[in-house]
Amino acid sequence: MAEEKKKNSWLHGNVLSLGLVSFFTDVSTEMIFSILPSFILSLPGAGYDVLGIIEGLAESLSYGLRSISGVFSDKFRRRKAIVFIGYAFSTLTKPLFALSSTASQVLVIRVGDRVGKAVRTSPRDALLSESVPEEQLGRSFGIHRTLDQLGAVLGPVIASSLILFFGATVRDIFWISFIPGSFALIILIVFVKEKVGNKTSETKILQGIKSVLKGRFLLLLLVVGVFSMGAFNFSIILARAQDVGIPEAIIPLVYAIMNITHVVVAIPSGILSDRIGREKVLIIGYATFLLSSLLLSQRIVDPIHIFPIALVYGLYMGIGATIQRAMIPRYAPAELKGTAYGIYYLVVGIGYFVANSMVGILWVNAGLAIAAGYSVVTSFAAIVGMILFLKTH
């Protein structure tokens, strides 16, 4: 009986608590992000290229800085405190969008929010992975991702409802986002438990990075890096929705569609990856992104056609974001999981900067078909790379 309870420990404790923290944080974040692309495009001098650069720079800095927080959480063995600092910084920064009036101001606030995410993400993932047995990592990351994305579904719906039924402005939404963010901080303080041991000083930081960057982990990073160089984020889909005539109050619902499909597939894809292998399921995720890029490149006659594109992109997010994270512990030393996640996020961040910047610039200067075609090529190369990675196992 005790053994069965231990096996099912992923159903409660840190998995559930961290999931609820992410749920309320994502309600806050996605209330804002569902309307932010159209808000940016309404500012003086801001076009698709500016949007792409803002998103690319903010996300790349976020992913890059995760390497630092991951390394330090391994070094000092105190993950919860670092996670709290990251969530608190984002919660306090996001409402400041309400005070912005230029694209440069939005960029500063967007980067500030992503710095908070950077600080918390690697130690949070390491803490989560240390809270469950290895054979349950896929489903544990799946349930965390599902709770995270349920918040991402609710956030845009709240934003759209406040605008449609209560007459709220975009800037009102920015201020209101502070409320669910505060709930997340309370849950984190009260319910999340530290899982790592005492502080150690034997492993120097650079030695830890060197210990991680070798073997199959290095090959995995290469494949992930190639894919990330074309993996534009959700803002491109939302910008396309505005481009084809979707009203501003309805655009958050386009985002909600992405997040609903994300929720639907996160746990099943995690469980499937535990059974047949995470590498095989990740190939499916990459292929789904390729399909969404192909759909994006097509001419849209009826604005309603943006919703199937959002649905397919949401499937990619649910599979890819869940499985890539769950793969890391298998290829990294057990005592350096935070460092491994940090390096992983650094590679992904550099790729995302290239992806969002390139897609935005190509969209303005060569057309959307060429921009989406670029992502088709990089995702196809990553699929081939992951197949080869599997064959050399």
Q: Describe it for me?
A:
The protein is an all-alpha fold and 393 residues long. The protein has a single domain, classed as Growth Hormone, Chain: A. It is built from 17 helices and no strands. It has helices spanning 2-7, 13-33, 36-41, 48-76, 79-93, 103-129, 137-166, 170-176, 178-191, 205-212, 215-228, 235-243, 251-276, 278-296, 306-327, 337-366, 368-391. α2 (13-33) packs antiparallel against α9 (178-191) and α12 runs antiparallel to α13.
Summed over residues and divided by their number, the pLDDT gives a mean of: 84
**Integer tally of domains:** 1
Strand content: under 5%
Q: Return residue spans where pLDDT drops below 50 for at least 5 consecutive residues.
A: 1-11, 197-203
What characterizes the major β-sheet?
Answer: none
CATH architectural designation = Up-down Bundle
Alpha-carbon distance between the two ends: 37 Å
Helix-and-strand structural type: mainly alpha
CATH fold-type name: Growth Hormone, Chain: A
Q: In sequence order, what are the helices and strands, one letter per element?
A: HHHHHHHHHHHHHHHHH
Number of strands: 0
- Per DSSP, the total helix count is 17
User: How does the overall form come out from the CA principal axes?
Assistant: globular
CATH class: Mainly Alpha
What's the CATH superfamily, by name?
MFS general substrate transporter like domains
Helix content: over 70%
Any idea what the radius of gyration is? 20 Å
